[in-house]
Every structure is written in structure tokens, then in C-alpha cells.
Amino acid sequence: MMGMYDMFKDAVSMAQKADNIDLVKTILELQQKMLELQEENINLNEEKRKLESIISEIKTIEFKDDCYYFDGDGPYCSRCYDAEKKKIRMLKFDTQLGSIYNRCPNCKNEVLKETYHANIMNL
Ligand SMILES: [Zn+2]
Fold this sequence. Notes:
Blueprint (H helix, E strand, L loop, with lengths): L3 H14 L3 H37 L3 E4 L2 E4 L2 E4 L1 H7 L6 E4 L4 E5 L6 E6 L8
Antiparallel strand pairs: 1-2, 2-3, 4-5, 5-6
């Protein structure tokens, strides 16, 4: 099968033989448009591949207690995922004063996980 580029070349030379300068111009403009569409198509395919890889990686996203869970695994920082699509595991942080937080080691986002009765006298 003849490539599009060769077809344009043929069309241009035919138009030149017919001495039709307007047709030559129109064909060249069409060729330019085709190149732009090809480039756009390449970019869209690239974007599609990225999205497909994100989808295949994450089958289910659950938002629970202000954190994300991916396929039941978590908690992950909602802030990092929403802003940068980064999966950062939250770490447990105990204040020793009656509160346990889930804390993001990347952005330091803190989410209260649970509270307990702290015996201040023992500190
Ligand atoms: Zn974070």
C-alpha cells in the first residue's frame, strides 16, 4: 500500500503538471494538517498508554478515614496521590499523649487514626 507521504508527493506533482498553483498550495496545506494530526495522534496514544498503566495498577481505590486503600492495601496519603499520583504509605505516629496518627513521610500530612486514654502521670 502506498504511504500517505508518497500520495501527497504524487498529488503535488500532478497539480504542478496541470500548472494549478492553487491546488499545489491546498495539497501542501493538507499535508501540513496531516502531519499535525499524526503528531496529535502520537501524543494521545502516549497519554492512553499512561492511563492504561495506572488503571491496570489500581483495580480498586477506596477512600476510607481520609486515606486511600489500593486493592485493600493501605493506608496511603490522599494528598500525595491527589496532587502527584504518588503512592506514599502512611506510617503510624503515636504522640504518647493519647492520639495515634497516620502520617505521610513525604508531605507530613497527618490523619488521626485512633485515640486512647493516656495516663499522663506515667510520662
Ligand atoms: Zn503525603
